[in-house]
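Standup notes
- DV: blocked on the single-chain target, sequence here:
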Amino acid sequence: MEDRFNKQPSEFSEEVVQVNRVSKKTQGGNKIGFSAIIIVGNKKGKVGLGLGKANDVASAIRKASTYAKKHLIDVPIKNGTIPFGIKVKKGAAEILLKPAPKGSGIIAGGAVRSVVSAAGIENISSKILGSDNKASNVYATLYALQRIIVLNTKNLGRIKSKK
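- DV (later): unblocked, structure below
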């Protein structure tokens, strides 16, 4: 059994993006629960997203954190920024991510900022074009970073085949 007082410091940083109180009508009355969205990253190119649901906030956060750590993605970082710009639409959310010069910092809204800072990106410019929903924007940002990985590997394949 794990000793909860002598925990080792984790290499991952966790950031709570959203906690929602949800209720369900039942025959006996209202059943209240909580859902939490967590971003987990090591600031070295790995980032994950977790959604946890439970009867109390602490359990929901713990479940989300566990899920996020199991589903990490690698983000390609070149000179502290992303290799190229990308515009992605996922659901109602539309996200534009562009590489930025060194020293410009993270120019992004709250939902996008938490994802890119957890991934370790130091310089980026972004714009949220679609929905104002934090959860949708976080999922769209993570999807954009996944698309960068896919497009980056396709381009590397083309470069190698030309030689």
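- Follow-up: Residues 13-73 form a domain with the Double Stranded RNA Binding Domain fold (CATH 3.30.160.20).
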